[in-house]
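Sanity check. The docking grid for glutamine depends on where the pocket ends up, so I'm generating a full predicted complex first rather than guessing from homology. Inputs follow.
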Amino acid sequence: MPHNHTLLELSKKLRSRDISALELCTHFLDRIEGDTKLNAFITSDTERALQQARVADDALNSGSASPLTGLPIAHKDIFCTKGLKTSCGSRMLDNFISPYDATVVERLAKEGVITLGKTNMDEFAMGSSNETSWYGPVANPWDTSRVAGGSSGGSAAAVAARLVPAATGTDTGGSIRQPAALCGLTGLKPSYGRVSRYGIVAFASSLDQAGPIAQTAADAALLFDAMAGFDPRDSTSLDKKFEAASSSLEKPLKGLKIGLPNEFFDSGVDSDVGAAVQAAVARLCELGASAVNIALPNSAAAIPCYYVIAPAEASSNLARFDGVRYGYRTNDPVDLTDLYERSRAEGFGAEVKRRIMIGTYALSSGYYDAYYLKAQKIRRLIATDFDRAFAQCDVIAGPTTPTTAFKIGEKMDNPVSMYLNDIFTSSVNLAGLPALSIPVGFSGSGLPIGMQLIGPYLDEAKLLNVGHCYQQTTDWHRHVPGEFA
Ligand code: GLN
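Predicted complex below; grid placement will be based on this.
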């Protein structure tokens, strides 16, 4: 069945005309429509998708197609899509129809990629489990009583259940890698500045990056190459040319040095997770790599540092939602203050309000030095740890998350335990580095386990190369949850 194929396999079938873009599109739309268990989508866009598929078929027939032409994907509902609802998982934007496309959406569309719909996500991308969405939680296809991970949980669940062959996500503190790990997928968080943030609803602007969630590293490379690149509309976008990551996937791993930070393998990690990651490192060593122990001494400070900086930036970014310009507006306000207050009180959910309060507090004049400025200094120490580590190794490996997927509801009453899911991922965003999560096995109870590979700044090609070589000799990425196979 076409849904069990990777993007690259589907691309071949499209080009050889074994299948038409229209057939492929209809097949996946039917799967999306037919799903009643996951809540992975906020919006699906049948008419437009079919129209795009017809255009793709014309290009394929006339020989003017790119390798991506006719491939269907879904976008996280944080990406602005022209003429289509862009809710960011929030009641605040439930009525927002974007007047323009995000650069990521525009670039992929230009290559002929078809948008099947918009995926569910934590409200304003704040969460580690996709339970803070105004549209309800997303279930994990491997066990629907468990979370899919967040905040790009809809994208991950949709790909894991093969409702789409791949999807986009964003990652501020782990939101691509963590749901990829919990759903058995490959997720790439690119270096800060590689992918344009234009048209992505802002959460924490110095940390946000967009990237692909796919079945394989090769598919992730295909999407990443199309998404990335300089964009004058994003002032933090890097104006530099790069070789396509897809062109170095096959490079032999001989001589590769993998750094193993002690801090990533300590007692907080589930034994199943630790063992699977160690086994994956051993496999990479069989392929010619070697492992060295390294230290990331400021790792423990990453969570407190991230949970000051991210809410501080969020409190500023979310000030624009005032009930006046666009988005949710309360009924019958008595005056302007009442309009602001009730629009925000009713439009935002509990987690978003918590972040706004923490961020506003950390930035207030009396506490700025004690919290925000201090966090910025710690951020520098964390980045320096990575610089030192990369003097000794080419990539750093460890678990993506300390545990496998937990039960829906299990951590919702305890924000601190929820925040601790980001322990291995948030430091990467603080340092602006690229990182890849790949599936490396299953727990005793059959839940997927992810390994995170962190690279030096701008070396996503190396990470994808390592991921691809690993996937050439393993088949974890081929497993599909039984119910959805
Ligand atoms: N879990 C983290 C948070 O809630 C990261 C979210 C993200 O990467 N968007 O802030």
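Relevant for the grid: The longest strand covers residues 435-442.
Also worth noting: The longest helix spans residues 369-389.
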